[in-house]
Amino acid sequence: MEVIELDYTKIQVVPIRSGSQELRNATKTFGSRYSNNPGKNEKTNTMKNLFGVSNNFTTDSLIKFKNKESNNEPSRLLANRDVYFKNKFVPLIEVVITNMIEEIEKAKKIDSKGIKFFKGKTVVYIDYREDYENIVEDMSKKLISIFNGDGGINDKAVVLGGVISKFNYLKKKQIYKSSSLKVRLREFTMKGGVIPTEIQETGTTIILNAVLRKNVKFPNADSILKYGTTHKTREGLDRVFGAYKDRLGKWTHTYYEQQRSILDVNKFADSSWAEFTYGDESFTKFFSDRVKDAERSDGSKITKYTEWNPSDIWAAHRLKSMQDDIEKEMKGGANVISKLNNLLRGYFDRNELIGLSLKKIGDKGEAHVAFYNNNVNDLQLKIIEEYGFNDLIFDLNNIVEPEVGTVYIHYGSDRKFSISASRTSSGTLALTAKIKGASAQAGQAIIAMVVDLLKKKLNGKKTMFDKDIKKSKLYPPTWKDWEDDKVSSDTFKDYKMMYNSLKSHFKKPPEFAEFIDKILYSTYKKDSRNAIIKLVQIRFFYDVFNMKNDTDIKEFWQDLLYLAMKVDRNNRFEFAPFAKISDV
Questions:
Q1: What backbone torsions phi and psi does residue 559 show, to the nearest 5 degrees?
Q2: Beta-ladder partners of 118
Q3: Rg of the chain's alpha carbons, rounded to an integer?
Q4: Which residues neighbour 3 within 8 Å (Cβ) at sequence distance 6 or greater?
Q5: Distance CA 36, CA 279 (A)
Q6: Can you list the alpha helix ranges (DSSP code H) found in 77-154?
Q7: Does the predicted model carry a pTM greater than 0.70?
Q8: What angle do CA 575, 578, 580 make, to 5 degrees?
Q9: How open is the CA angle 470-192-266, to the nearest 5 degrees?
Q10: CA-to-CA dists, residue 455 to 230, 429, 446, angstroms
């Protein structure tokens, strides 16, 4: 088979089949589906020779190179081609992503190992800590700028390449489609053992399918780790955990307790049930692709799946016909989410569908299954309705402590429930619920819905809090903005007024001038995001205490707990029915 090297791309190609005008890569690329690769890697294919950059290149320099390439010719920037880099052949995607991570770490935008690169057999992975979502989304956009493609955080993947070029070569018309490569984006939680959520939850599907579809019995947690069984569960877990295989032992108790608790309410041991799945073929993906922009009864739209439903994995009875029914229900019109929720409740009631929200189980914890938003009141949540204003404990003192950015609201003297008001990696406000004794967080409130609640409770009063931190002029991004008097006099006066109104919630509050010159100054110097979140918190809690009366404040914080846990309250929030496996 004749090997053609496209001089301007330095890519070796061959006809996809004898006599075909369609060309494919001749040199073996990472993840290639072709076993026959007549071309060979060349040591001359260095970053300098191919792209005019040194081994210490910047991401922007590759984007600049890409922008100068001709649109009429195949690009040299092929994600899965090998380059000769630091005395060995390495897939270009590995070089680029690793370099991106190093750039971000040097800029001190992330903690060490907050974002990691792994190479699988046919795909590559970017694993990232949950609070670095915005940074990984930016990385995704840059990868697409370099290699072409689409995807991002919402898709949990970026597919690069697959670009068709038509051109003449040796007086013949040729068609070259660059090979494509999938980059999987996997999130891990700060309290989840630093393992991507995708791995944790795929592990759960392996165990539940073994128990419910193959009738496998696990007498204890250690039995999950046994090799050589007919059902090959351990081998499956090893494959899923991959580079994190050494952490598997820390998850066996959770997996054992999850399957034990499911067997207590076993409605799934039937061959007409579809398997629990995770990833591109899952029911979660089915919903994610369809629920975006669907309307609630109040006209507001769902922007992503997790705003509506916390279920991580699903199992369904008669999956295909159920999906057809759901498709019909979602064909536009008003109240789509309300109609969909009613349809799902019917499936839940008839034991035809189950969506599970998965939480890590503590080392000595016992898992329980609880159902929500399906017309069954959870006894544990009844206590929320009983909390009065005096049961709320506002622990806001960290606002006047230097270099920290989290404050807390506790419910009841036993602090059964808590909400932390902290920042995300990009600096926006995060309101996260926690249940005492639980190993995992209970959930995070959707800030847009929080703002809507806030405005309703303020009942026409001016809202001082602005959730759009980067766009707003109310949050000076640097200390220099304060030094250079870029903060307007009105904004300064507002902060002084709001700060003074909150002083009763601080233990030994400094005067406002001292707060600015000492507390805020040192926090800006250490991490400007923590300084900005202090300003956000001042505005947010000023609005909270500016509500009409204590009853409004109490109801607001009750609502906030429900919002964070994705539990409906009198059908106002329109969250989907789901079941949660947790240790509380």
A1: -60, -40
A2: 125
A3: 27
A4: 12, 13, 14, 26, 38, 39
A5: 30
A6: 92-106, 133-147
A7: yes
A8: 120
A9: 120
A10: 59, 17, 15
For residue 85, give the nearest of 53, 123, 117 by alpha carbon.
53
The token pair at 250 is 């820390």
Q: Is the dihedral of CA 504, 507, 508, 510 positive or negative?
A: negative
Q: Tell me the pLDDT of the chain (584 aa) as tens digits.
A: 678 887 778 888 888 887 788 888 888 888 887 777 888 888 999 999 999 999 999 999 999 999 998 777 788 999 999 999 999 999 999 999 999 999 999 988 888 788 999 988 889 999 998 778 889 999 999 999 999 999 998 888 999 998 888 877 767 788 888 889 999 998 886 554 568 888 888 899 999 888 877 888 899 999 999 988 878 899 999 988 988 888 899 899 999 999 988 877 656 655 556 667 666 557 788 888 888 888 888 888 888 888 899 998 888 777 788 888 888 888 766 778 988 999 999 988 888 888 889 888 888 888 888 888 887 655 567 788 889 999 999 999 999 999 998 999 999 999 989 999 998 766 789 999 998 877 667 788 989 899 999 999 999 999 999 998 888 889 999 999 998 889 999 999 999 999 999 999 999 999 999 999 999 999 999 888 899 999 999 999 999 999 989 999 999 999 999 999 999 887 788 999 998 888 87
Distance CA 135, CA 150 (A): 17
Distance CA 401, CA 442 (A): 27
- The label of the residue with tokens 């049961």 reads 391
- Give me the numbers of helices (H) and strands (E) for the chain, helices first please: 18, 21
What is the DSSP-derived secondary structure letter of residue 172? E
- Looking at 391-527, list the stretches that DSSP marks H as alpha helix, in order from N- to C-terminal side: 447-458, 479-483, 489-502, 512-514, 521-526
- Contact, 380 vs 386, CB < 8 A? no
| Residue positions counted in the chain | 584
Classify 64 as helix, strand or coil: helix
